[in-house]
Design brief:
Shape: globular
Number of helices: 13
Strand order of the largest sheet: 1-12-11-7-6-4-5-3-2
Strand content: 15-25%
Structural class: alpha/beta
Number of strands: 13
């Protein structure tokens, strides 16, 4: 399903103010590391996973409304936000394990996962590693679908990137970058849509420890050629799992064509395009985002996982289609690795 609204998004839902105490950070120590998270509401569990360099604060405006019908859990991934930032494994597989362990400490056995950007890759990895604990997938401008990614992220993945990130925080450099961003917005470029949000992520890296964690996370999924982790080779395993893809058609970080590729690779998935939105469609039109999440979770049944069905899917493998054969060639040529 593809829904294409008018050019200017209409906010169908007016979000109520955030209640006192609803968005306060809580903490759990798991494996000796402090994990920060926000938790609100009652009902079926809904886990919100942020993108690289971001934190659970990115969902702050949405949590109160989603919490009307769900128990909402929004973690700060390890190395991000108020969580610890050790010299550790920052792969998508490790993040999926971390989400599982946090949910276990909170007594939550299964959930609908909402993942943005890197968080989308983590959500897909979680569904692959722990299908019995995944009720639905909602992927927002998700990584891990194709090789393309914004050139700035490729640049930051190369040696010496920490010097670049440090320089961006200098007052003089910040002014120049701000002027450039203003020009890009004035020229109505796609990067101009996302640049202010991306600069906010840089501001969220106040010290060397945070910057090192950011770079280690980025290098786990991106190199100078682009994204190096993909789930396309096993998307067929989402058959029978309700999956919705949400994407901005002006995404300058992960191109919207990735949305159509993922939609085709995921049997029975639903695709919703936010016209005029960039990499953060839930910021551009939070009302529509909340409405879609609430409607999707209310009208679909949780995935009915069974060991027998999982074995059958693995034995059958991906259907042999011209598109899949072309995708296989692309993966070999790009020397990409799968997130096993």
């Amino acid at each position: 399903m593809v829904d294409v609204p008018h050019r200017r998004p209409v906010r169908a839902v007016r979000l109520r103010p955030v209640g006192d105490g609803e968005l306060e950070l809580r903490y759990r120590v798991v494996h000796g590391y402090r994990r920060a998270f926000r938790m609100a509401g009652e009902g079926p569990a809904l886990v919100l996973i942020h993108g690289i360099g971001d934190s659970s604060a990115t969902w702050a405006e949405l949590i109160p409304d989603l919490a009307r019908t769900h128990t909402v859990i929004a973690p700060d991934l390890l190395g991000h936000g108020a969580s610890d930032k050790p010299r550790a494994d920052y792969s998508v597989a490790a993040y999926a394990n971390g989400v599982r362990d946090l949910l276990t400490t909170l007594g939550i056995e299964s959930a609908t996962l909402v993942g943005h950007s890197l968080g989308g890759g983590v959500a897909m990895q979680f569904a692959y590693q722990f299908p019995e604990r995944t009720e639905r997938l909602i992927l927002v401008s998700a990584g891990g679908v194709g090789r393309e990614v914004n050139p700035v992220l490729r640049l930051v993945s190369v040696p010496g990137a920490h010097l670049l990130l440090s320089a961006l925080r200098l007052p003089g450099m910040r002014l120049q970058v701000g002027l450039t961003v203003g020009l890009m917005k004035l020229l109505d470029t796609d990067l101009g849509q996302d640049a202010p949000e991306l600069l906010t992520l840089v501001d969220a890296l106040p010290d060397e420890t945070a910057r090192n964690a950011f770079i280690r996370t980025l290098r786990a999924v991106v190199d100078w050629r682009g994204q190096v982790v993909t789930m396309l080779d096993r998307c067929y395993l989402t058959e029978g799992m309700p999956t919705m893809l949400l994407w901005g058609d002006r995404d300058s970080v992960v191109p919207v064509r990735h949305a159509f590729g993922a939609h085709e690779a995921m049997p029975g998935s639903r695709l919703e395009i936010f016209e005029g939105a960039g990499h953060f469609p839930f910021h551009t039109d939070p009302g529509r985002f909340v409405s879609l999440v609430e409607e999707f979770t209310a009208t679909t049944d949780p995935a009915d996982w069974s060991r027998e069905r999982w074995r059958d899917l693995l034995c059958e493998g991906r259907r042999d289609t011209p598109r899949n054969r072309a995708a296989d060639r692309d993966l070999r040529e790009a020397s990409e690795r799968s997130a096993t």
